[in-house]
Automatic annotation (TrEMBL):
Protein's UniProt keywords contain Glycoprotein: no
Protein name: WD40 repeat-like protein
Residues in the signal sequence: none
Gene3D superfamilies assigned: YVTN repeat-like/Quinoprotein amine dehydrogenase (2.130.10.10)
Organism: Rhizoctonia solani
Keywords, sorted A to Z: Repeat, WD repeat
Stored SUPFAM superfamilies: Quinoprotein alcohol dehydrogenase-like, WD40 repeat-like
PROSITE patterns: WD_REPEATS_1 (PS00678), WD_REPEATS_2 (PS50082), WD_REPEATS_REGION (PS50294)
GO cellular component: transferase complex
Residue spans of the WD repeats: 249-290, 335-376, 384-418, 420-461, 463-504, 508-549, 551-583, 594-635, 679-720, 725-766, 768-802
PANTHER family xref list: WD REPEAT DOMAIN 5B, WD40 REPEAT PROTEIN
InterPro entries for the chain: Quinoprotein_ADH-like_sf, WD40/YVTN_repeat-like_dom_sf, WD40_PAC1, WD40_repeat_CS, WD40_repeat_dom_sf, WD40_rpt
Length: 895
């Protein structure tokens, strides 16, 4: 090749490599364009099947996809990136992105080359950006890069038909790819609703790397490698393909809690739960050496210096040690004369200083060489969880348990930005972008936010997708991507290239915290909810819109709320000792904190005439409060049983109490006399207890996972729900009678809602499984047509149970989709609801994968019988009119 590529040596035989690469790239693109058929190239029989379930797939591939086409699809951008710029090549590239991208994805996926797909399209996008290519082509290439990455890095890629059946309908309508391909589609499911309209597409990859929590990750300076601890090893991943390119699996890697990668990617530092810390020399063949001296134990924070010559390590005794990784570099420390235990440590951008955060709310910087403090420390108000340094200057940012982020200059000791707010949980991790323009934060609230460092405005987020608290966030070196890891065992990649700093987002989402309690208004037109962050919200039932609040006078989580029967008042309590009564129209805190209990108050209920509020407390008292004055009227009960739930009879004369020790008793509301009980009802705390509408029965839900129905006059047990099958498999936290008394509903820590026949205890409806976390509270609507439930997953769900009014009592019926499904195999197809599985597939009762829903949208999906989702962000539904799916899927697209 030296001869033929040298014009001076080869003369007429000279081969211009740029021209030849352009010729080959053009030939590859023409081969792709000429492939037949141009849709469903392997005639895949059904969208219900994963590719691995197509029995004769290898034969189909061999018959339909030639080796030349495989080569063209795999290597066309390799030639493109080395080619000269020609108008004909630009035209072919445009044609590819506008018309043949989906066909190319079919070929790449079926030939098991999808792991390379993202880098292939990114290479084409780079070529468009660097050449004088029309802007609309470059934008199409950029959108295609994200589309391919989302498909390649999620379970949807297990089924090639869902390039069309799932990816296209969920791609935002405003994006160039949708404009190019949706006009050719018909018979696709149509996601509709406010959650779809407001969606900002950011999540582009999800990698399940561990069955345990992933506490930290590291990214190399060139952005090509990511290191993460997995279940029993440390893996180095290619950030484009998601493939593990290097692995260390031995005894020392079984309980790794922290990892860091050197800037050049040649070394990985890690520490384990037993206090040992090591350096894995990736470049020299995998040698693992001990990092700390014998007898010195590490903590949960490791970081490399900018030049990779030192590692700062938090020690188990609370100090910091600076370890040298070369003969010509000095070690320093351990620094142990600190006022509190170190939580996080980081080097400054120039490596001359290190900063750390402390349990005692302090952030401090030290000189690496002298070991002396730099500037003045910052004294905060809450424990510091994470610190990070700006790559461009001396700024230090940190996140705290008070849910905020602050930016500090150690030279002056002044806060230069913040507090930045928006999170509803402690901020566990923070990171600057490499250009210093943005700060990303991850929180216990399972979301990520990105802030503009000039204004402090939220410019992206909350980013949703993780299902547990987020432990680490890191920007890519070019600041276009954000990497995160979580206790959910995943690493996720987010697109942050398209941030619009001119359009700041709301700082706080209406429901950004776990919802603990929910109640209908007497009219049934509104709902009041109480959240873990101490806020109260009032919602319109028909629209799901916030009509009042958030009300913020509670300083801690709201444990119980109730509406007065006339809708004029709202009562609330929290895990402080005060009750509050709010004006149901204006939201005014009418009396301020109503004091009397000396321990937290988990339950409040209005009397039917709205004149008094009943409260039960862990202080073993039940008290009655005058609504008009806010004063205590009487104390009904003073004993040795902590009260965790109360209910009041429809006539207002009796109060039922559920206790921490598993007993139930009924009190006279006026005199406090014990009328029934104590009943040894449950083996554990009774979290919820209610009267039936006629006052003749009680229902209770307990720590022992059972729902039981009692005679309210005698205390005799009448029914144990689920005794013959269908019982909850975790704590029952809330119960409710239907207005007609025929049914009982329950919500549980097992994430489900269930409806029972109150006469025989048989399961009538459910389990309803849309919630992804603990179901904390449920209630029937006043007209009995709906159930409402709220959850730690930050959603309120309304369930249509109107069929209960007409179906024969005692017949076990589980309601499904009330739509005409063209692919119904038999009458039983609609007998059960569609459910999302762990990978995001919506699956019917036969196990058919109907459609894949992106993880950032799943919590907003209302699948019948879940009629709506309230969360302050809107919900969406699946419009299936004319849906072509299953063996009809090949009718959904015309190339």
């Amino acid at each position: 090749p030296d001869f033929i590529l040298s014009q001076g040596r080869s003369g007429n035989y000279y081969c211009n490599p740029n021209t030849r690469h352009a010729t080959i790239a053009e030939a590859c693109l023409r081969l792709i364009d000429g492939a037949e058929p141009k849709f469903n190239i392997c005639a895949l029989p059904s969208s219900f099947l994963l590719d691995s379930q197509v029995k004769d797939l290898d034969r189909r591939i061999a018959q339909s996809i030639s080796p030349g086409l495989v080569y063209a699809c795999r290597y066309w951008t390799t030639h493109l990136s080395l080619s000269e710029h020609t108008s004909s090549l630009i035209g072919l590239v445009h044609g590819f992105f506008h018309s043949r991208l989906l066909l190319w994805m079919e070929v790449v996926n079926l030939t098991k080359n999808m792991r390379y797909a993202t880098s292939i399209i990114q290479s084409a996008e780079k070529w468009c950006t660097e050449r004088n290519v029309p802007e609309h082509v470059t934008k199409l290439a950029h959108d295609a890069s994200q589309f391919v990455s989302v498909y390649a890095n999620h379970p949807v890629s297990q089924s090639t038909p869902h390039i069309y059946a799932s990816m296209l309908p969920f791609w935002p309508r405003s994006r160039p790819l949708s404009a190019a391909y949706m006009p050719r589609a018909s018979g696709l499911v149509q996601p509709t609703g406010a959650a779809i309209d407001r969606r900002r597409l950011a999540l582009i990859a999800t990698w399940k790397v561990s069955t345990r929590e992933v506490h930290s990750i590291g990214v190399s300076r060139d952005g090509r490698r990511l290191v993460a601890p997995t279940t029993d090893s440390i893996e180095v991943y290619d950030t484009t393909t998601g493939e593990s390119v290097l692995s260390l699996a031995e005894e020392r890697t079984k309980n790794v809690n922290c990892v860091a990668i050197s800037p050049d990617g040649s070394k990985v530092a890690f520490s384990s739960s037993d206090g040992a810390a090591y350096v894995w020399d990736v470049a020299s063949g995998g040698t693992v050496t001990q990092l700390l001296p014998d007898g010195v134990s590490s903590g949960h924070s490791l970081t490399f210096s900018p030049h990779g010559s030192r590692v700062a390590c938090r020690m188990a005794n609370g100090g910091v040690c600076i370890c040298a990784l070369g003969q010509d570099v000095s070690a320093h420390g351990p620094f142990t004369s600190l006022t509190s235990c170190v939580t996080s440590v980081v080097f400054s951008f120039d490596g001359l200083h290190f900063a750390y955060g402390l349990f005692n709310n302090t952030v401090r910087a030290w000189d690496v060489q002298t070991g002396q403090p730099v500037g003045m420390p910052f004294e905060g108000r809450s424990r510091v969880r994470s610190v990070c340094s700006c790559p461009t200057d001396s700024r230090i940012a940190w996140g705290s348990d008070d849910k905020t982020i602050r930016v500090w200059d150690p030279q002056t000791g002044q806060t230069v930005l913040g507090p930045l707010t928006g999170h509803s949980g402690g901020v566990y991790c923070v990171a600057f972008s490499h250009n210093g323009a943005f700060i990303a934060s991850g929180s216990a609230d399972k979301t990520i936010r990105v802030y503009d460092t000039r204004t402090g405005h939220t410019v992206l987020g909350p980013l949703e997708g993780h299902t547990d608290c987020i432990r680490s966030v890191i920007f890519s070196p070019d600041s276009t991507r954000l990497f995160s890891c979580s206790d959910d065992g995943t690493v996720r990649i987010w697109n942050v290239q398209d941030i619009d700093t001119s359009n700041p987002l709301p700082t706080v989402s209406p429901l950004s915290s776990s919802i603990i309690c929910i109640r209908y208004s007497g009219s049934g037109t509104r709902l009041v909810s109480g959240s873990d962050d101490g806020s109260i919200h009032v919602w319109d039932v028909a629209t799901g819109q916030l009509v009042l609040g958030p009300l913020h006078d509670h300083r801690r989580g709201v444990l119980s709320v109730d509406y007065s029967a006339d809708d004029r008042y709202i009562a609330s309590d929290s895990d402080e000792i005060a009750l509050r009564i709010w004006d149901g129209v204006t939201g005014q805190d009418i009396h301020g904190p109503m004091m009397g209990h000396n321990f937290w108050v988990p339950c409040v209920r209005f009397s039917p005439d709205s004149t008094v509020v009943i409260s039960g407390s862990i202080d073993s008292t039940v008290r009655v409060w005058d609504v008009s004055t806010g004063q205590q009227v009487t104390q009904l009960f003073q004993g040795d049983r902590s009260i965790v739930s109360v209910g009041i009879s429809p006539d207002g004369h009796r109060v039922v109490c559920g206790s921490l020790d598993g007993t139930i008793f009924v009190l006279d509301r006026h005199g406090g006399t014990t009328l029934v009980g104590p009943i040894d009802a449950h083996k554990g705390p009774i979290f919820s207890v209610e009267f039936s509408q006629d006052g003749k029965r009680l229902v209770s839900g307990s720590h022992d996972k059972s729902v039981r129905i009692w005679d309210a006059e005698t205390g005799k047990q009448l029914v144990v729900c689920g005794e013959t099958g269908g019982a909850h498999n975790d704590y029952v936290l809330s119960v409710s009678f239907s207005p007609d008394g025929l049914y009982v509903a329950s919500g549980s820590e097992d994430h489900t809602v269930r409806v029972w026949d109150s006469e025989n205890g048989k399961l009538i409806h459910g389990p309803l499984k849309a919630h992804t976390d603990i179901v904390r509270s449920i209630q029937f609507s006043p007209d009995g047509s709906h159930l409402v439930s709220c959850s730690y997953d930050r959603t309120i769900r309304l369930w249509d149970v109107s069929f209960l009014a007409t179906h024969p009592q005692g017949h076990n019926m589980i309601l499904g989709q009330n739509i005409n499904i063209p692919f119904a195999l038999d009458d039983d197809t609609t007998s059960e609801p569609w459910l999302p599985d762990a990978d995001g597939w919506i699956v019917d009762s036969h196990g058919h994968r109907l459609v894949w829903v992106p993880s950032d949208l799943r919590m907003y999906l209302a699948l019948p019988p879940n009629s709506s989702v309230i969360n302050g962000q809107g919900d969406f539904r699946l419009d299936t009119d004319g849906w072509k799916i299953g063996d009809q899927w090949a009718e959904c697209y015309l190339p």
